[in-house]
Write a structure and sequence with these properties.
By secondary structure, the chain is α/β, with parallel strands linked by helices. Helix content is about 45%, strand content about 15%. The chain has 13 helices and twelve strands. α1 links the parallel β1 and β2. The N and C termini lie far apart (about 50 Å).
Length: about 350
């Protein structure tokens, strides 16, 4: 039994691979892990699997059809779990081309390869094959403060190059199911946080900047609201959908944790004050409001009742427990943080924040 995971050296993908091979229910399976190792992919995330014959890492691009065809023919996976994506809104504003290529062209390439592979399988293998597409709540656009949370039938209204590219990939997956019968499931998750999160996103950026005594840049008034999902809970939800989700269906995955960005930053500062006090004073002194980014959505909120009703899934972590685990992880893994903050990362931070 084999799983093909794309983007399995990234933040969510690596957490999923580690979780999959650690769980007794799936520990006997093999994971073929395909990742292009762009700036956000890091094999150190998977160091615990070094030498493990169940983990087969392949350095490659999801746009490479010949490679995908070869992997499918050689390993005959029972499912593809598709994490690989460019996922940072700010980067998509600076350079949208990479998002169109990976998120749209890459998903198209995978779908076509999967369709060719699936159509040639024996009846028993064909019946259990799945293509699991991992997407985002950002495809739904922005919510008013008192509007109901996003359900799976909410209209798509993407507002950034990133969310537009993910919306396009969602539509492709849906079309390949309805046109060709490819057995797909799609999940749209809220903002993830937790271990191995590249420090360009809000929570890890605030942690690493605070520990370095650097400004904590908060866009605009900081009142943008997001639903926050601990990455371990996301992994367990994907397991549930992959095992029991209805074909062709979409499931929203959320943490039931709506928080304003500025409140997240204050929570992180308070935890660091407790866990690693700074002799220079409280970390909140470093909070710096900067010019907001273009088209910044004000609120996302996930209604995750469908996955609970149909599959019995609910998040195990509250925000209080999850954010404490996350801060503790970064405090214990300073070597990893130092390694990923390369010259390229510093150049990006300078380009995105220097003029704000």
């Amino acid at each position: 039994m084999t799983l093909l995971v794309t983007g399995g050296a990234g933040f969510i993908g690596s957490n999923f691979v580690l979780d999959w091979l650690a769980d007794p229910a799936t520990a006997g399976e093999t994971v073929v892990n395909l990742d292009a190792l762009t700036y956000a992919g890091n094999l150190r995330n998977l160091a615990a699997l070094q030498g493990d014959p169940r983990h087969h890492f392949v350095h490659g691009d999801i746009c490479d059809r010949a490679l995908i065809d070869r992997l499918l023919a050689e390993h005959r996976p029972r499912a593809i779990v598709h994490f690989a994506a460019e996922s940072h809104v700010d980067r998509s504003i600076h350079g949208p081309g990479a998002f169109m290529r990976t998120n749209i062209d890459g998903t198209f390439t995978l779908l076509e390869a999967a369709r060719g592979h699936w159509s040639g399988l024996p009846a028993d293998e064909k019946a259990v094959f799945r293509f699991h597409h991992v997407s985002t709540d950002e495809v739904y656009g922005s919510l008013a403060p008192d509007a109901p949370a996003f359900t799976e039938t909410h209209p798509y209204e993407p507002n950034s190059p990133y969310s537009a590219s993910k919306a396009a990939s969602d539509h492709l997956v849906r079309a390949w199911h309805h046109t060709y019968g490819l057995p797909v499931v799609t999940t749209n998750c809220s903002n993830n946080y937790g271990p191995w999160h590249f420090p360009e996103k809000l929570i890890p950026l605030m942690i690493v900047n605070a520990l370095a005594g650097k400004p904590l840049p908060v866009y605009g008034d900081g009142r943008q609201i997001r639903d926050w999902l601990y990455v371990g809970d996301h992994c367990s939800a994907i397991r549930a959908v992959l095992a029991r989700g209805r074909l062709g269906e979409t499931y929203n995955i959320g943490g039931w944790n709506e928080q304003a960005n500025i409140d997240i930053v204050h929570t992180i500062c308070a935890l660091l004050d407790e866990l690693r006090p700074d002799p220079a004073g409280r970390y909140a002194r470093l909070i710096t409001h900067v010019t907001d980014r273009p088209g910044h959505d004000r609120r996302y909120a996930i209604d995750a009742r469908k996955i609970e009703r149909e599959l019995g899934w609910r998040p195990a972590e509250t925000f209080a427990t999850g954010i404490r685990k996350t801060v503790q992880w970064y405090l214990a893994h300073g070597d990893w943080v130092q390694e990923v903050q390369s010259g390229t990362y510093r150049d990006w931070v300078a380009a995105n924040y220097a003029q704000r």
